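Encoded backbone
================
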Amino acid sequence: MQRPFTIALVGNPNSGKSSLFNSLTGLNQKVGNFPGVTVDKKTGVARISEQLTANVIDLPGTYSIYPKSADEYVTYEVLLNSSNKDKPDLLVVIADASNLKRNLLFCSQIMDLKIPVVIALSMVDIARTQGTTIDIEGLQRMMGVPVVAINPRKNKGISQLKKIVGDMYTLRPPVHPDFIDIKELAGNWVEEVKLLCGQESNYGALQVACNYMELHYLQASHRIRVAALLDEVKFNKAAVQAAEIMQRYRRIDDIIRQCVVMESPIKKTIASDKIDRVLLHPLWGNLILLLVLFTLFQSIFWLADYPMTWVEEGFSVVRGWALEIMPDNFFRDLLVNGILAGIGGIAIFIPQIMILFGFITILEDSGYMARISFLTDRLMRSAGLNGRSVMPLISGMACAVPAIMSARTIQNRKERLITIMVTPLMSCSARLPVYTILIGLVIPERQVLGFFSMQGLVLMALYLLGFFMALLVAKVLDKLIKTKERTYFLMELPVYRSPRWANVGITMVEKAKVFVTDAGKVIMVISVVLWALASFGPPARMQAVEAKYTALKAAAPQAADSLDKLHATDKLENSFAGIMGHAIEPAIRPLGYDWKIGIALITSFAAREVFVGTMSTLYSVGDDTDDRRIREKMADARFKDGRPVYTLASGLSLLVFYVFAMQCMSTLAIVKRETNSWKIPMLQLLYMSVLAYVGGFIVYQLFK
């Protein structure tokens, strides 16, 4: 079978590479992992012409061909290893026209690997705003490869790019000449390395010489021979790299002089610079950041109020309809009190999840998310990290799993490990259903200063509590983990852009679907298991309960309604679930929790959002005729002495417990995968569990 034509997209971060990938592939995408590593592998299928369909790979962004992070090593290996199944037939190098000199350096390095190249020039409109005009035809002539201007966000230049790719596939033009003479730079020995290691270019051979110990696809015998050869020729890696960069820049300077016209030698101040004077100001920038976060958390309650009510009422109607049309038997009880109660308890929070991801997408798309990293760099450094750790922490507000995976861009191993250890303390979307149902129970709906919602302020406080605890733990770990390795935070700020509203909408829908399918599977299973545990128990106990209430109803038939409720409660307490809850109740009573909360703490270890489904199931079993909302049922919950279970003290204690608790098997699994050790996730589980218990205990004692 003929291997499909493969196109790889390469370029600097924030160059428009992902936008081009989305434009070329549309919805024909999938995300996996590159073989042997945990780095994301985004692939898709693009219709280039009527005759050509190509596989497209979005390689991790990198500033230079010389790798430093795990992501950059993936790009490096794909480009150098001729036997890699992802080896591209053609490279589309995305170059930022507003930073042309630096981007052409990377382009020239890619070109010298002797893989057919097309340069896709992005950000041309921004370069024009800066007063820069680029002669694209002249640039194409001097670079020796096709150059096309693109704007994937507006779908401009895509058809021209496809035509060039199609022509190169059909005509198979000769490979472009060397940008610089590698043999003259390094010596004739590169020919031997080229033949020995199966490289297609002299520059590829030089790259092997620079990093042969890190290239795992090389045979041991090849490594030994390369090491011996480099020793013979007295190879100085740093000197050769420096000379190479200088040679490339000399030619690039000549190209820019002939192909680029600037209105002024001083870079014009564009709109992004003017906005940054305010948004990156030491005082106003941080105040605006707090305002942005406050608006986000207020909106989670305010905007989601009506759709949440509609979802809740919809499930109530379905539940009532099932009760009416189905006979009173085992299957009705399973459907209504097991499946519908569990899924309905979590579906109500879909609007809030969509709003959260919508806001995060807007912040990323507009370019403001990168500014958050810049603003918080000093704060991060005080905790032993740097601004690069901010992105995983902020991403942790959505989900800890991809956030932890994104920490691989951190070059310093110590900082990467600390970031992985503290990221789960950030309040993820799975905590949101727990927060909102408990806040609705114990925090009054009143305005502060006549405008701010008390519930929104408490929600924001929970997110900030997780963030500052993450910094505190990071500071402790920084003192405990000793290393001499130091890193610096370098980041290019993207220009501000209007969010792609279609992309925001698609992201909201896709994230909601993922939330429903992924969380729904777990909740479905746990809800059914919980229903069974809460409906059945040891035969002797259950028979004793039945005998007791049969006798009571016979003796006092006029009290049948009140006895039915007591009967349901006793059955639940004597069920397998009740026995489990009562077994752990002594350990959690100091935190103000009852046995039902204990069961929820156990089940929600699979996923935090299962807490709400568990409550829905436990408060629905034996209560078929009660159509009240789950929050109303929880508000009426009482201990045996008549005290309410959900008070301000117990509610705040439970909120703090969920801020700190790990309660997520998926996160533990991904930490093990990223660190290649069970030691780290087990330590993580231990310290977060201790924090959760101690924090919940202190809060309960303060407010009771």
Confidence is low (pLDDT under 50) at residues 31-38, 265-269, 624-628. Residues 111 and 262 are 26 Å apart (CA to CA). The first strand starts at residue 6 and ends at 11.
